[in-house]
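Inverse folding, one chain.
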């Protein structure tokens, strides 16, 4: 039983590592994309985010009443 547990543990650790490296790759790609985008693209992305936050706040206010 101990052997089985140990190999399960190792598999869990491997999965964890794989997930971490996949996330790291994704983050890297995101940074790359952001580095390549023009000021105009960045501004429109940021304003979209702000707009979204504003709408969410409005919804929250409406729900509270």
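Residues assigned per position:
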């Amino acid at each position: 039983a101990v052997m089985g547990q140990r190999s399960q543990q190792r598999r869990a650790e491997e999965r964890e590592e794989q997930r971490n490296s996949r996330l790291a790759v994704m983050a890297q790609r995101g940074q790359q994309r952001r580095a390549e985008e023009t000021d105009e693209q960045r501004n429109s992305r940021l304003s979209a985010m702000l707009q979204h936050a504003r709408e969410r706040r409005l919804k929250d206010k409406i729900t509270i009443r």
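The chain has a mean pLDDT of 91. The longest helix spans residues 2-36.
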